[in-house]
Amino acid sequence: MSKPANRGSRKNSGLLGQTDWFSKEMQARIGKRYISDRRFRRLGIMAIALALSALIALMGSIVISGVQGFQQTQIRLTVYIDPGLFQGLSDLSPQDVEAKIRMANYGAIVRKALTVKFPDVLSRRGIWELNKLVSIGARNQLRTVVLDSPGLVGSTLSIWVPASADVDTYYKSNAEKLTGVGSHRLTENQLGWVAEFGATSDLRKVLSRDFFVGGDSREPELAGIWGAFVGSLLTLLVTLAVSFPLGVVAAIYLEELHERTVGTRCLRSISITSRPFLQSSMAFWVWPYS
Questions:
Q1: How far apart are the first and last CA of the chain?
Q2: Domain-by-domain residue ranges, the chain?
Q3: pLDDT tens digit string along 217-238?
Q4: I need a labelling partner for 156 at 20 to 30 A (CA). Which of 15, 24, 105, 205 fits?
């Protein structure tokens, strides 16, 4: 029966002879190795700190640059809900009343409010430019207000409606001075009208609800991320439902049930070596949607 190795032995035998781990030479080598190890750890911490700093700076610049994308420019209009557009409501059933309100010409109400605000605009071209200050979402917003309160028919109210995309872009870049300087698509007349809205505090920026709950739209000021978010979520769910059970079954087969052939060994080797790449790829593609 062989004797156990002496753990307190100063020397270990090997192919190249005996090594005295407590000699001055070996202690000096061990000390250098520890110093090198500490230096390597410090460099690793510095690299991680540098990467985190760069990530924070990148995310900060993205947030600062994109914060205006979460805002919407609105114009305040004083509108008169003309009862002539809702004739015969008292003789209709509740369902027909709702249909009548939905089908009313709210665009005419918005246009009338703009011409009352600027009565000097009489030319056909000028009226067209004036109507372009307001988004087509204004009529939808006014329709919602009247549907919620049909008693507003025949009354005058002040309402904030979304501005057009051109006004929105211009106001976000010139909200303080409205000087007309910079890149924009507004005409000289439209710049003057926007400045007048700003002078009377009838122009503002607010958090855009449409950006979060809206879907695809041909009008930039009404477009939202909800459709893209739902589509991405469904894609991730379908991918998870397919890949998770398939991956578990494949792992059980490779570990427990397969015959040790050259093909299965190669497949197992590929699955092990590609695991870090797959994790990095999933983090890269999934993180922006999380």
A1: 63
A2: 24-67, 69-222, 228-289
A3: 888 888 888 988 999 999 999 9
A4: 205
